[in-house]
Amino acid sequence: MTHTPDAPDPVPPLLVVDGANVVGSVPDGWWRDRRGAAERLRDRLVAYADSGTAELPGPLEVVLVVEGAARGVPSVPGVRVEEASGSGDDLIVELAARAGDRTCLVVTADRELRRRVTALGARVTGPRAVLG
To answer: Are 17 and 131 in contact (CB under 8 A)?
Structure first.
């Protein structure tokens, strides 16, 4: 397939990160500053927007889902932060459902969330995929 100047760029695959689950997977004191831990994760995710992950080559659209005390973390170039008004898991399921036929990879270790998003056609991987 040849890219022409008038052709739209293909939609990049979607990487959705369960912020609470990924942050909670490393016992580094995150519970003392949940928002700060979410900001550190957001900043770490920026690199994946261009390079992708082992499971999904870049470029990617990266979405970090935050909830509770982690709300208020702003988006940065390369990572869009979505605040869940209720359950972060429900928002992640909604994002996976909206992906439709687009490739969607969800980063979480939550078994029930994994079941819910794979039923929608999303792929899943664990927190180590973005924590190194």
So the answer is: no
The 8 Å CB, 24+ separation contacts for 31-34 are: 34/68, 34/69, 34/70
pLDDT per residue as tens digits for the range 58-80? 999 999 999 999 999 999 999 99
Residue type at position 34? R
Full-model pTM? 0.91
Coil/strand/helix, residue 19:
helix
Closest CA to 78 of 98, 104, 101, 51: 51
How far is Cα of residue 127 from the mean position of the Cα atoms in its chain?
10
CA distances from 15 to 30, 96, 100, 104, 115 (A): 23, 10, 14, 6, 17
Over residues 100-127, the pLDDT tens digits come to 899 999 999 999 999 999 999 999 999 9
